[in-house]
Amino acid sequence: MIDLIYKIGHFLLITVFATALGLLFMGIARKIIARIQKRYGPPVYQPYLDVLKLFGKDAITHGFIFDFGAVMALGGVIATLFFIPLGSWQLYSMEGTVLLVIYLLAVASLGMAMGTVGSGNPQASIGISRALTQMLGYELPFLVILFSLIFRYQTSSIWGLMQAQAGSFLNWNLFAYPMMALVAFVVLIGMMGKKPFDAMIAPSEIGSGPVVESGGKYLGMLLLQKSITIIIELALYVNLFLGGADNIFSFSFKMLIVWILATMFGSLFPRFRIEDGVKFFWKWPLGIAILQALYIII
Amino acid sequence: MRNEKELLELINVHLEPQAVEIKREQNVSVELAPKNLIQALSFLKSHSYQHLSTISCVDWLEEGAFELVYHLFSYDDYINISLKTRIKREPGIFQTAKEIWPVAEFYERDIHEFFGVEFKGNDNLEEMILENWQHLPPMRKDFDTREFVNDQYEWRDYNGQKHTD
Amino acid sequence: MNNNFVKGSWQEILDWAQNKSINMLHYCTGCGAIELPPTMTSRYDMSRFGIGPAATPRQADLLLVTGYLSTKTLRRLIYTYEQMQAPKFVVGFGSCTINGGMYWDSYNTIKQLDKYLPVEMYIAGCMPRPEAILDGLLKLKKMINNGEADGYQRYQDNLEFYHQNQEAVLGEVQRTQ
Amino acid sequence: MDKSTQTEIFFGPNHPGVPGNYGIIYEFEGDTVTSAKANAGHLHRGFEKLMEERLWIKNTALVPRICVEEPDINEMVYAMGFEAIGEIEVPRRADYIRSIILELARIQGHIFSIGGNAAGIGQYTVMHWGTLTRDYILDIFEEITGARVYHIYIRPGGVRQDIEDETFDKILDLMDELENERFPDLEKTLFENPNAQKRWQGKAVITKEEAVEMGATGPVLRANGVPHDLRKMMPYAAYDDVEFEVPTYENGDAWDRIKIARDDMLQSIKIIRQLIQNIPDGPVQTDLGNGLKYKIPKGDAYVKIESKRGEYGYYMVSDGGLKPYRVHVRGASTPLGLYGVREFLPGTRIADVPVWAKSLGICPPEFDR
């Protein structure tokens, strides 16, 4: 019983921490992009104010499916937090967490898809069809990488993969398999929907895509979902390729480094069209991932 | 590469212009009877005057006539031709130039909306710029916009004194 | 939509949050919209005050009426305004929204904006400069913070007045509620 | 294509991807536009009617407000129309100053449209830099004319006031800064960016025959290898005293039109330098008597000049009175915005509709008037 309460308390702590860190990262990203564009940009704590304002506004619902979609998106993402080791914090670390995380991420985006279909706006349905095709695009190379890692270290739990890279920083996967780390970085940008792979929320084509009909608290929930997704994907990348960390601060610092790199990389590229994006994923990243996998197997 | 004079000879020979005038360097204006304007358009188009800038309409209220002006330009002679013709104001009917220049359909639609000129053969003449407009076509000279505005909208009264009086 | 905007302390916090982060609807209704890009981008940068563009009326709080309004735009502006969510504000640019401005005798533009939509403030200038726009928006933020910007309440309270004026100019207007 | 699978979208007036207050209603199937219709008229203020109610001199304040992106083009065409009907001579220095203003307006127009095109495909950094560069040119305008966008500076008979020498030096410094710092940045981030090239290449193609048939001029023609430029074909102001080339490309797609915008700017810089170098002295305004009593004999004229999007013309008629009898505005993007949308938009992908609209430079107030 005590262990249950401890777990629940620990889980709440992780959720609040992930949301706060995610929003902080979004604020930092806006600041970096602003600096690149020779302007000041909003204060770093601006996303917190946005969320507070959004929860204060009225919002129009488009029926039960629309509400449930937003809740499912947020719920799916929070559920994924159970299985990601954030530095030393670790809730569940049994075998198979890698695959479970991939599945739960898909649940979150399907929830958002259901919500947007409920909203009935054609631009939203175009946006969500783009998001799902893009997911198809980056899942392929990502799964190849994961399988080759699992095969290499004979364990499919993230904690196990992280432990395998312990010791000096030399045997991080980043240095053991640099090509795979590069491909994973590109896939990470695709997963987070940052430029040049943000065709699904293209404001100038389909008016900010899936979230076109959600104002007020729905947009607030989707903003929270986005911030937790950022933390999850960054944590996944750091665990698999930068050897995790023993305490939370160096873990967050590593995540910050990867995040800044992804933002800078993204701010100078226009966005792909959706089929060019998927073609790109299936051409270079998939090829390198398969080569790396063969290298590991042989 | 014709200059203005050779162009005028060509026009005098082939078309029956009522009046021809060289307005300025590289600018010629030709007045024609309504019935042989469309034929003149296709004739000039075959003689390197392929560019139709626009079709303008001028409402001569006192003389009871609409004047349609077709502005052509040649990429060889670099000369501007303004083909003018006058049609009766009351029936205000004219043939369409859609077959010669498909884009003329929209210039005619614009003139129809603002002057009420009917273009036979152009079936796409419904409203484009204005939205459910029930009054006189606004660009006609007998439509007074100030009087229309005074009875359509009230003015903001700055403590008693109206904006326009 | 609940009409009883009770003035509790929770409302003050929301007003404070609202003035810190305003989403401006990306809708260039008139000629004044040419001065919005310079205000949004590097040189004058309105985003340092937390004001950023929003693509759809659902996510927007601020509706800028940048200059004159033709009747065709007015109809779409009313639909847009009614799609926006409760704490929403309208700011008019230049004299065209006050008394018709330079197009006072045009048959196709409306003469007074605040007969059709509740306007919080007007920014002077026949196309106000970016500095004037920023100054106006900063003043708007102060008004929001101490609760004076209650245009949406005025719209709710005398809905009949606004609807009559709109129908007088536009004929029939689709109503959502 | 039965109707059931087609959905209709209002790529409407309230949309970041659309240039200005203008709507395109298109039906699409899958990801391709099947039919499209222009939904224009949102910016109609009845300019031509208002001009018939105002004196000649009062219209100079009304005229720049027709097209927001290029107010000086309207002022110039209005002044040229007045001078053409009234056979008024403009002092040579005024011609030079007018050409300088027009070329500065061309650079700010092009840099703004390159920024707009880049924002259309998601490259916001270039939009920020482009608008920032444009602001420096607006500062020069502010020094010469006192206003940022609407200058009311070019008047019938000349220009409102002379330009001092240190303003000329400022213009020259700005030209150097543009050429050595601003444009190279732009070159690296946009024109050497493989994504941008992939997004623009082969999109929104308008062939030479289609353009000539439709009456579209400017970059649309020059992107098909046709070196047509009214500054060369019908030289006005001081363009017969300067040498410059007319950049052309071959395959008439969005990528070429945007490269033309870049090359046009470089040519404009060259023109401005030549103009400032050998600008003659003398008055800048012929004396036409009291402004309120401007009067020109009965007559009409069609005048046109080369705006950044092509031929921009007025047909002006005067009946000898104190007010113009009729002014007809022919915007550069009129054929494209109304006829071109219906004829050439179907077939493009949804993602390329903003690319189509912005790269062709559709400026709605021109055909709404």
UniProtKB/TrEMBL annotation, chain A:
It is a multi-pass membrane protein. The chain crosses the membrane at residues 6-29, 64-84, 96-115, 136-154, 174-193, 223-242, 248-268, 280-297. One of its GO terms (cellular component) is plasma membrane. It holds the Pfam family NADHdh. Its main location: membrane. The lineage of its organism: Bacteria, Bacillati, Bacillota, Clostridia, Halanaerobiales. It is found in: Membrane. This is Membrane bound protein complex subunit mbxM. It comes from Halanaerobium saccharolyticum. It comes from the Bacteria. Keywords: Membrane, Transmembrane, Transmembrane helix.
From TrEMBL, chain B:
Residues 31-148 form the NADH:ubiquinone oxidoreductase 30kDa subunit domain. GO terms for molecular function: NADH dehydrogenase (ubiquinone) activity. It comes from the Bacteria. InterPro entries: NADH_quin_OxRdtase_su_C/D-like (IPR037232), NADH_UbQ_OxRdtase_30kDa_su (IPR001268). Pfam families: Complex1_30kDa (PF00329). Belongs to the complex I 30 kDa subunit family. This is Membrane bound protein complex subunit mbxK. It comes from Halanaerobium saccharolyticum. The lineage of its organism: Bacteria, Bacillati, Bacillota, Clostridia, Halanaerobiales.
UniProtKB/TrEMBL annotation, chain C:
InterPro entries: NADH_UbQ_OxRdtase-like_20kDa (IPR006137), NADH_UQ_OxRdtase_20Kd_su (IPR006138). One of its GO terms (cellular component) is respiratory chain complex I. Signal peptide: none annotated. PANTHER family: NADH DEHYDROGENASE (PTHR11995), NADH DEHYDROGENASE [UBIQUINONE] IRON-SULFUR PROTEIN 7, MITOCHONDRIAL (PTHR11995:SF14). Belongs to the complex I 20 kDa subunit family. NCBIfam families: nuoB_fam (TIGR01957), PRK06411.1 (NF005012). This is Membrane bound protein complex subunit mbxJ /NADH dehydrogenase subunit B.
UniProtKB/TrEMBL annotation, chain D:
Gene3D superfamilies: Cytochrome-c3 Hydrogenase, chain B (1.10.645.10). One of its GO terms (molecular function) is oxidoreductase activity, acting on NAD(P)H. Keywords: NAD, Quinone, Translocase, Transport. Pfam families: Complex1_49kDa. Residues 121-369 form the NADH-quinone oxidoreductase subunit D domain. InterPro entries: NADH_Q_OxRdtase_suD, NADH_UbQ_OxRdtase_49kDa_CS, NDH1_su_D/H, NiFe-Hase_large. SUPFAM superfamilies: HydB/Nqo4-like (SSF56762). Belongs to the complex I 49 kDa subunit family. This is Membrane bound protein complex subunit mbxL.
